[in-house]
Each structure stands twice: as structure tokens, then as C-alpha cells.
Amino acid sequence: MDSGKLDRVKPEIPVKNLSASHKIKHCDEVSPKSYLDLSKVIRLLEDPLTERHLFVLKKLLKRNHSGFLLRELADISQILNICAEKVSDQPKYASVLCEALEICRFPFLKERTSDELIYAQDATEFLSNMGRLMRVPHAEVQEHVVELVKSFFSSDAPTDLPEELQATSAVYRLQLLERSDLPKTLLLSMAALQNQPSIKLQLLQTLQLLSSASDMNCTMILDAGGAEMICLHMNDGERSCQVLLCSLEILWNLLESRSKEEAMTQLSSMECVVSLKEAFSFVLEITSGGSDLQLRNYLLVITTLIAGNPNCPLIESLFAKQLLGFITFPELNSFSVQKLTHSREDLKMRKLLLNLLFVMCRNVAALQLFREELVMVNLLQLVNPPVAYPEHRPASPHCFITQQEELQLQALDGLASIAPVMLHDYMSCQGNTCLLLLLERCTNKDARVSRMAQLQRCIRVLRSVTALGDPAVNQDLCDQGAINQLLGSLILMEGGYDEDDVIAVEMMSNIQLILSELCETDLHRKELFGSEGVEMVVRFLKKGPKKFYSGLGHNKLMISTVDCVWSVQPNCACAEKN
After folding, report:
1. CA 183 from centre of chain
2. Structural domain contains residue 237
3. Tens digit of each residue's pLDDT (9 = 90 or more) over 80-110
4. Distance separating alpha carbons of residues 138 and 87, to the nearest angstrom
């Protein structure tokens, strides 16, 4: 869901606080009759006894059918407010408001270039006042207000403009919008629209447009508690996938804005997390096609974004427990709420869940839940997947293999962060054995080119667990011949790698750091490194400086090589000869 953002770098509108006398003087210079006409209209409307109100209003709107002048916006705003007050007792004024709002869809008009500067404050207040018309208890008026805001992003000036008038630009209108409190007013009006689902949906679509347009709009929405309000109301009444989808896209925009910390704080309340959980359960019940599956994945994205907040009650709400149930092999699990297939959207869901593990593992409270849900077992199963039953394989074997590899890479990325904080579980599940088997398959001569990604991540996981210096972990690796296996892989890479291959350089550096950790404190392990290993290290030392400043990681490789020499120093007599 890549919402198209408008260019947020716009020319600033300088706003000057001009006195009323200055504005009147300017108006008199242009057209004193027009200014006086509006004054008469206002006085006429304030007289409750006259019967000429509608006639005068129709005449005024006809005169401005191509758009309102910037210099008249203050008076037009006052006229529309008077009409709004009369709607409850005299519904006929609603048609006048709707017609005026239709005109407001056109760009404002200026007689002079300086009008944009002089009347910027009036125009900003006019837009704020348009948002307050949402309080008018008339569905058609409310709908016109919402459509008015949408028009800011697309409407053009009429083609029949008089030569002496010019339309203001869309950029100017959007800047006025950012300075007004229109986004905030629209948000606050949402609570009153629960019994008007069609207008509520239009309002949400408008808020989605505003939140994707600029960070200033997002900040204004968040200042009014927008993230929490939208989250709490997205399940109200008759649940609609359109309402839910639009709400999630607004939340996504808010979480990607400059005020994302505030958005995360608002969505991290227990009420909001429960609302997300209810929405997820609802989507699982009605999931039938691609759009529903996409909606389910959007919910997971929002959940992952707020899971980074340590105060988010994802575990207390039991939402995390529900989600972790899908990390097991759903096609083999008869207790799953929903059977996952090999569709692209279901693959995205499983990858999102694996990414959620990576985010949650930073929270100590999540580790116990990981143990209860056998997260480590399932991660290692994904690293070395068992052979699937024939009835569970997709029609295309190539598709099945590709999906397995994507999940395997995601599991390895998660394991690099989770294994160090769940070391006991990692050892209980024979994590070292699993990784060494994968390492052997990846360095096999018959391995495909795509194995390079698995090899890179496998080495990262081994580096993350050996870096802890835990004697049991390191001894287990040595007992399984890890030193000889890693040394063989390193020599193989050193003999045929491209010096500009960043991935190969990273892997060689990490392998040397692993070997350094394993050999540093044990004489027998130093001996296992052998003369072949020393000769290989010497070759690294000789050619390392050539690429030290290349920016490709050779500086780290050089440092890891020196560290490796230090750790296996009893065998460095060979190095002295060279």
C-alpha cells in the first residue's frame, strides 16, 4: 500500500497581519461597490423579517459562479455562517449552502498578484470555517464539505474567467489548507457520522488524502488524537472492508509521518490494540479473495509498526499469542484458525509474522511467550524445512521452492536476533547442528547460485551466537567440527571471490571473527586451525591493504584477519617465515 505522497516541499506563503482599514482601503481601490454589496447582504440576512433572503443569496451566488474573490472571502464566510444557523429551522437554506460549496470547489480568484499575500489569513480562516459546516445537521451539506476538500487536489479554474481575474494555484490552496484547522475539524466530526456510513466513508477517504499530502496535516490530525480516534472507530456499526481499509491507510500515513512517535503512542493503548485484534479476527472470518487477504496483511503491518513501542500491550491483549499461532506450518496444523495456502498474499503474511518476531524479541516479556509457542522450533524448521507432503505442495514445484527459500531467509534474519536472547532454547533445539548442516549444503559444489544469500545469513547467525562467548555453545560447535568446516569454507571463498563482492567480503570477515572466538582460549582448537589456516591468513594480510579504503568492507576484513592471527598465535611461526 504505497500511498502516493504529494511533494511536501512547497514555497512558503508569507502571512501578514494587515489591519481591517488596510484591507478596506485596498477593496475600495479595486471595487467599492462590490464590498458594499456584501455588507448589505449581511445586514439583510441578519434581519429575520425580510422575505428577500433567498433571492439576494441566489443573485450573489450567480455573480460568483466562477469562484470567490480572495478579498471577499471574509464576508462570504460570514454569510455562509448565517445561512448555516438558519438550516435547522428553515431547511431551504441548505440548498444555498450546497451551491456555495460547489463554487468553493473552484480555485479562489485574485485581481492582483499581491492578493495572495494580503488575504492569506482571510483565506485560511475561510477554510477553517468550511470545516465547521460539518456541524450542520444536513447530509447533503456534509457531503459537499467533504467533496470540497477533495477538489483541492484536482479541480481546475472555469474556462470562462474574466480577463481581469486569475485563479490561485493548487499549491497555494494546499498551503492554505495546512495553515487552517480543517483537517482537525473534519476528524472531530467523524464521531457524529456513525449512523451515516456513506458520508463516514467519504470523510475517511478525505482524511486519507490529507494525511498522504503532507506531514503538517498528519501533525494536525495527531494533535486532535486522530490515530486513536480512527483506530477505535474503524470497527463501529456495520463493519465495512472499505472503512477498515481506508482507516488502516490513514494510520499507515500517520505512522510514516514526522510525528510517528506520537502516532505510535496513541495506538499503543490497550483499547487500540484490542480494536486491531478485533479487526484482524473479523478479516479472518470474511477472507475470501485477494483484497481481503491484502487487508489482513495491512493490519499486520500496522501491528508490527506499533510493536516497536515497549509500552505496547500486544502480549497483555493476547493479540501476540493469536498471531504467533500462524508461524507454525499452517498447512500441517489442524488447529489453525485459517488454513494458509501458497498464494502470494499468504506468503507475505508469514513473512510479516516472522518480521514481527524480530521486533518483539526486543521486549523481554515476549520471550516467555516465544517459548510457549515454540518459536525457536519453528524457526529452525524453516531454516531446514522438512519435506512437505505431496497433497500440500502447490501445483508448481518452482513456486514451492522459491517460497521456501524466501521464508528460510526471513527465518535466518529473525534467528540472528532471537537466538542470542533465547540461547538455552537454541541449544535445546540443536541450533548449531541445524546451521552447520545448512552451511554444508550452501558450500556444496552442486549448490545453486541463490545459496549465497542463505550462506550469508547462516554465517551471521553463527556470528551472533558465538559472539556471546558462551562456553557451551562454542564447545558444541567445536565438537561438531565447526573449525575445520568454517576454515574450509573460508579457504574456498578466498580462492575464488571477487574483490568487489561486498557479500563475500562480509562473510569472510564474519567467519574469521567466529574462528577467533572459538580458538582464542583453547590450545587444542588453535592447533586445529593448522598451517593451512595460517597460510590463508597470511595471504589476506598481504593483499588486504590494497582495498582498505574501497568502502567495500575490506577494512573490516583486515581487522578481522589481524584478530584471527592474534587468536591462533601459537601457530604463527608459519606467518613469521612468510
Report:
1. 21
2. no
3. 999 999 998 888 899 999 999 999 999 999 9
4. 8
pLDDT at residue 389, as a whole number = 41
Report field, pTM of the whole predicted structure over 0.90 = no
The shares of helix, strand and coil residues in the chain, as percent rounded to the nearest 5, are 70, 0, 30
Residue range 317-361, pLDDT digits in tens: 999 999 988 876 544 443 344 556 667 888 898 899 999 999 999
Do residues 299 and 283 touch, judged by C-beta distance below 8 A?
yes
Domain span including residue 511: 434-444+481-578
> Is 531 within a domain?
yes
Q: How many domains in the chain?
A: 2
Least confident interval from 42-56, 138-152, 167-181, 293-307: 42-56
Examine residue 231 and state whether it is found in any structural domain, yes or no.
no
Ordered DSSP codes for 129-183:
HHHHGGGSS-HHHHHHHHHHHHHTTT----TT--TT-EEPPHHHHHHHHHHSSHH
User: Which cell is 288 given?
Assistant: 475470501
Give the end of a domain, one of 165, 180, 195.
180
Please give the DSSP secondary-structure letter assigned to residue 110: E
Task: Compute φ and ψ for 166, nearest 5 degrees.
Answer: -130, 145
Residue where a domain stops, chosen among 180, 199, 218:
180
Establish if 474 belongs to a structural domain: no
Report how far residue 89's alpha carbon sits from residue 228's, in angstroms, rounded to the nearest whole number.
35
